Amino acid sequence: MASFIDRIIRAAKLDVHLYEEVKADKGAMSQAAGVVVLSSIAAGIGSIGKGGSMGILFGTATALIGWFVWAYLIYLIGTKLLPEPETRSSPSELLRSIGFSSSPGMIRIMGIIPGLTGAVFLVSSVWMLVAMVIAVRQVLDYKSTLRAVEVCAVGWIIQILALALVLAALGVKTP
Description:
By secondary structure, the chain is an all-alpha fold.
């Protein structure tokens, strides 16, 4: 089994072979969860100036929940709504691959540097989105990157709407 740090670096480098590797490695689930946790902690530390120390705990918990929700949404959309003829996957394969696509988010720790928070979070978000599209394309065996973009976009819209409904039900006001 490849080393954890090597896999993080390869995922951040957008190595398509890494996503195929973790798709096939049933033992990589704990590593994928570790990437999500580390990326979330980095985000919490990077935004400590805005969210305080509770931001680390809240950010980590919501990222883990979001990881599961996102993987299942992508599974349903990608295999049931928008599959290609070769599409074969399972929720666990998506959890592993999508977990590693969070690797670029570890740079968010640099957001702790005053004046860089916004730029660091923007760059990491775009980088993570590109990694997500690559992961989805590989794990769902798509021939088209555009199909992976479509699946991610539909999933993102559904997730945003669901989050807005949950926040509204809880009485949380958003900016």
